[in-house]
Design a protein that fits this description.
This protein has helices spanning 82-87, 113-123, 140-152, 189-200, 214-220, 222-231, 246-261, 281-287, 298-307, 326-333, 342-356, 362-376, 395-401, 419-427; strands at residues 10-14, 20-21, 39-43, 76-79, 92-96, 99-100, 105-106, 132-136, 156-161, 169-170, 178-183, 205-207, 237-241, 270-276, 336-340, 386-390, 405-406, 411-413. By secondary structure, it is an alpha/beta fold. A 6-stranded mixed beta sheet has the order 4-5-16-13-14-15, with helices on both faces. A 5-stranded parallel beta sheet has the order 12-8-9-11-18, with helices on both faces. A 3-stranded antiparallel beta sheet has the order 2-1-3.
Length: 431
């Protein structure tokens, strides 16, 4: 399998100081830098995509991984005919992440979060000294990591808002190495992140790292690699709905890497990202031309998070401001941030089902709704080379033919729970 070695096919570069670092499999920052920053993987070879039956690891040349895990799928990119005709577009390419066997899409959790889960977990040493991986999620990421860690015997504590537990479903019960921790009802994704930080304050637990994990970003960046391989060039416009914006940052990093590779032409890709109004902190900060996120109160954020259909887009502390974050990626690409409300997104989801023939997630519907508006506003030409990242789809198709069950929380904590209590009670779940 191409690119799978022992981790020697890449190094990590600290974007704060430029230092080259050898990877430990769990490294999230330069030990000599105190300012917030990203580590970015540098690969030793050109991209040579493998066969589709290799799953996500067909792109392993450009993944910071050291082993292959079973069960992965990869993004599938195809040129749209029916939806493109409906929208009057001549060059619309859809990158589909989810369950759609007819197209070769085999992500059983129905989300591109499998891309990051299979990359992150394949980067971790088989027996990490740090103990149990901790992942905070609003739903899709949790579902993906539960599956990957259950099937590959990787100890995991996944932390989600209790009100989002309905997004956690699977055919099988989570394996014994996987535990689900919830922040109490009324909380949001940021509260789940805060709870995960409490858990990581104790020994025996280590953070996945979110956007700071280069394997997460490069795993999600495979969507753009898929598009470039299918199109033979880098797209001109990239559409995706965002909560944290990590997927869009990953897309931009992938486009820069593709241009440097030299096989896919110049990089003119504009990031066209969208939010589900009224949860629109990234949109409002961008439109104010502010590197700093505009103020958003905790109670206001929780209220707005409960109003939107696309719950996974409700991150109130996204990696927007730090160097190399979403603000810089938008500036570098000449991109923009768009908005779609619930009604617009629902109509877009119905249109995709009607024209392409499969259901898509609320957040993917937000992305399509924003594309429709950009076309109507002439912000994007109808003959432009557009990549529409359908970040989730086929869950209804999958659940129609597979018996799934809801996952239950092993523990629920209030937002004021003491860190030592969180660590002690969670650790006891494995005893």
């Amino acid at each position: 399998m191409s690119g799978i070695k022992d981790g020697s096919h890449y190094t990590l570069k600290a974007m704060c100081c430029g230092k080259e670092l050898e990877d430990t499999g769990v490294l999230l920052s330069c030990p000599d830098c105190s300012e917030p920053h990203f580590l970015r993987a540098s690969y030793s070879s050109h991209l040579v995509a493998g066969n589709s039956d290799e799953g996500i690891y067909r792109f392993s040349d450009w993944l910071p991984v050291r082993r292959v895990l079973k069960g992965s799928g990869a993004p599938v990119t195809y040129r749209s005919r029916a939806l493109a005709a409906k929208l009057g577009m001549s060059n619309l390419w859809i990158t589909f992440n989810g369950w759609w066997p007819e197209k070769g899409a085999l992500m059983r959790t129905g989300s591109f979060k499998e891309c990051e889960a299979y990359s992150v977990c394949a980067r971790i040493p088989e027996a990490p000294d740090s103990g149990t991986l901790v992942v905070a999620s609003a739903g899709n990421t949790a579902r993906a990591f539960i599956r990957v860690c259950s099937e590959n015997s990787i100890p995991l504590a996944v932390v989600v808002p209790e009100d989002n537990l309905n997004a956690l479903w699977s055919e099988e019960e989570p394996a014994g190495c996987v535990k689900i921790i919830a922040s109490a009802s009324g909380s949001d994704y940021f509260d789940a992140i805060a709870l995960s930080n409490k858990l990581c304050s104790g020994s025996g637990f280590y953070p996945e790292g979110g956007a700071k994990n280069p394997a997460r970003r490069d795993g999600m960046g495979t969507t753009v690699l898929s598009a470039a391989v299918a199109m033979g060039e880098i797209p001109e416009y990239y559409f995706q709905a965002v909560g944290s914006g990590t997927g869009a940052i990953a897309a931009w990093e992938a486009s820069v890497r593709l241009e440097k590779d030299g096989s896919f032409g110049p990089n003119n890709m504009k990031l066209m990202v969208s939010q589900n109004s009224p949860f629109q902190i990234i949109h409002d900060s961008w439109k104010a031309d502010s590197r700093d996120l505009l103020p958003l109160g905790d109670d206001e954020a929780r209220e707005m998070a409960h109003k939107i259909d696309a719950k996974v887009l409700s991150n109130r502390k996204p990696p927007y401001s730090l160097p190399g974050g979403l603000f810089d990626a938008l500036k570098a690409s000449g991109g923009d941030v768009l908005l779609a409300d619930n009604a617009e997104a629902r109509e877009a989801g119905r249109l995709f089902l009607e024209t392409e023939g499969v259901d898509i997630s609320p957040e993917a519907s937000v992305a399509l709704a924003s594309l429709i508006m950009a076309l109507d506003d002439k912000a994007v030409p109808r003959d432009g080379k557009v990549m529409l990242n359908i970040t989730g789809g086929g869950t209804e198709l999958y659940r129609a033919s597979h018996k799934t069950k809801a996952c239950r929380a092993d523990l629920v904590f209030s937002n004021d729970a003491a860190p030592e209590d969180v660590v002690r009670e969670t650790a006891a779940l494995w005893s």
